[in-house]
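Structure tokens please, single chain.
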Amino acid sequence: MNERECPAPAILARPDGSTIAYHKTPGRDGVDDRPGLVFLGGFMSDMTGTKASALEAFARERGQAFLRFDYSGHGASSGAFADGTIGRWAEDAVAALDALTEGPQVLIGSSMGGWIMLLAALARPERVAGLVGIAAAPDFTEDLIWASAGPEVRSAWERDGVYHQPSDYGDEPYPITLRLIEEGRQHLLLRDPIAIAGPVRLIHGMQDADVTWEISLRLAEALESRDVEVTLVKDGDHRLSEPPDLARLFGTIAQLSDQLSDGVPG
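Here you go.
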């Protein structure tokens, strides 16, 4: 790869001394009034993944501003993954939104990033124009991890404060801390109406073995917005990163961006 294809990430310094690594693509002057795009990755993923890179190329082709970054403890950002929590990663997203973007933004959240995008939208409603969820996983620490934890897992949490969960997405197990579960309970969203009024698009694979597609239906029901669309992909998996999946995602983002640019109400 040449330097254009793989530049070193820029660094955003946080007041507490931590750093967030990011790549930012500016919008093209004079193109139109489209919102910027911000990609929020999943649990233990980073900004070099297939969807993040493909979205950057898509945004550049359309002349839209685009931001991808790593949460603390992920990728090139500082910190240890095991020290992270939902609240901390949501704070990272809001910090990146505040410092690295201008004007209205569409947040694109993949898996855990779907939870983070909702928390960021609630924290900055004046900045977030729309949301696109890809296998969105709000409340997953409680409804998926805690709810399915057997005696062995709960014993490890009680004894060590951490359970090392095998993963299909890497060679190393994921350190799932009891603190992650307990802190996550402060940010649960699906128990009450979610006060987000802007347009929301949710895409979910029906063959998703990690986050059941019914969660997107629960999320659609909980959102106060009247402009919510759910797309179920019958043969889609959790990642939704195959070429047809990316084409569907690009079409969804383009349609939503153009709707927002034209001022079409939801």
